[in-house]
Amino acid sequence: MTDELSVAYDPWLPFDPGREPANRNAIRELQSKCPVAHRPDGAWIITGGAAAREALERIEDFGGTFGNYAHLDREEVILPGLAEPQHSIVRRGVNASVAYHRSVTVIPYLRDLTQRLLADALETCRTNGSVDLYTAVLRDIPSAVIAHLLGVPEDDRALFTRWGDELCELQMEGDNFNKSFGDLHPEFAAYVDAHIAQRRSMTDTGQDSISRMIQVAESMDAEPMSDRMIRTQLMFLLVAGNETTRNLLGSLFYRLATDSEHMKKLQAEPSLVENAVEETLRIEPPVRFVVRRCAHATDLEGTEIDPDQPVLVSIEAANRDAAVFERPDEFDMHREHPRDHVTFGAGPHICPGAFLARLEGRVVVETFLEFVEDVQLVDGAGYVANPISWARGPVELPVVMTQRARTQG
């Protein structure tokens, strides 16, 4: 029975709105009958909210990520694939790059960038009658923010967008999830290596993310990060922060463009923007599922899991578990505990870029509300989904926008 139920919901199939009703029914049945279910391919799938949170928090029992990096030099292993204690050591360097004290520094740049992109998009809309909001504004913002944090020229923003897309596409081919980023994309690796070397040659200590990661690496008493490991984590930051935040922004604005009541509510109560970001993260998580591997024989919610078995934690299912959330399928900007979802994980290995992603969502929406009076999806336009299996978000957003009168001229 568990095998049959788990086959009915297959997260490896890319998100498709047409399949959503059937998926929701299958997920509800799994949650009620077998929240930790066995799949015919030997993997386990977790759909229950409590079970998902427990698995994510038990880092000694369930670790790793999509790829199997056992054969790689650990300097080529991305942060989620590192076991403790190495994970925590490297995490210090990553936190120096994207945690709160670094992320808040991008706010002025992010507001200015969003304003410039919106101004161009509004002009295109006036000229052509519509504009693809995703391509014109949302797509490039996350990579531009990462580029800004790294302290590289703004002109390289287009490179970061392209490289992030190429890495995601390359990872989906064959067994590329098991390969290093440097092997998958030598051009990007060489670019990062050059900037690391350039920072190393500077006499004055910089405050950009590359410089700060080098500073943390040099301060480590044991097992300091090499330049190759720094490069690995910087490339990972681009891929993780680019694709996921782009999905978040796409889902946020798709909802605004298809439901005018949400737009009106945010215009009337701007303080709800943060909750709108959280509800989007919960109900339409940018990463639909994550993969872990069982480290040793263990029990989860009364189910025995054997060593080395893969475990798929369905974020999209856990975030809509009726046992955890009232009215789980309703987008509620007044939800009492808006951050109770597991979109960024849970426990010691929670996503270090969570604050930055939330900040980008909030600032972009706030800036949009300042400049745009109304936004509507073009008549006849449908939802064009991200084709990457683990991702959820639109990749097109053709809209008609009108500018707020007080911001014109």
Descriptive labels:
409 residues; alpha+beta; Cytochrome p450; 5-stranded mixed sheet; 3-stranded antiparallel sheet; 50% helix; globular
Walkthrough of the structure:
By secondary structure, the protein is of the alpha+beta class. It has one domain: Cytochrome p450, CATH 1.10.630.10. The chain contains 17 helices and ten strands. The strands form three sheets. A five-stranded mixed sheet has the order 1-2-8-5-3. The longest helix is centred in the middle third of the chain and has 32 residues. The protein is globular. The chain starts with a helix and ends in a 6-residue tail after the last strand.
Helix-strand string: HHEEHEHHHEHHHHHHHHHEEEEHHEE
Estimated structural class: alpha+beta
How many distinct beta strands? 10
Q: How many structural domains are formed by the residues?
A: 1
As a percent range, the share of helical residues equals 40-55%
What is the fourth-level CATH superfamily? Cytochrome P450
Per the CATH scheme, the topology name is: Cytochrome p450
What fraction of residues sit in β-strands?
A: 5-15%
Taking the sheet with the most strands, its summary is: 5 strands, mixed
Mean pLDDT across all amino acids:
91
Look at the structure and give the CATH class: Mainly Alpha
Shape: globular
Instruction: Please give the radius of gyration in angstroms.
Output: 21 Å
First CA to last CA: what distance? 64 Å
In the CATH hierarchy, the architecture is: Orthogonal Bundle
For the biggest β-sheet, the strand order reads: 1-2-8-5-3
Regions with little confidence, pLDDT below 50 for 5+ residues = none
Query: Helical element count?
Result: 17
